User: What shape does this take?
Amino acid sequence: MMVTLGSSRDAKLKVACGLNCRSCGCRHFWVVYTRRGWGGKLIRRRECRHCGKRMTTWEKPVGR
Assistant: This one.
């Protein structure tokens, strides 16, 4: 008997991606400000829409 487990694409769809607030688990954020960092990275200060906690993200532009 052969069991099909699904494709790797299906497995990727079930994995949650992105940011979650460490305080309340919300996935929605406002960007408070953005500035350039070293090596072309973007530094963004984000605020949770639900609880107001802030976090900093360092992002590398794709395709550079």
Summary: The longest strand covers residues 29-36. The helical segments are 8-13. The mean pLDDT is 83. The radius of gyration is 17 Å.
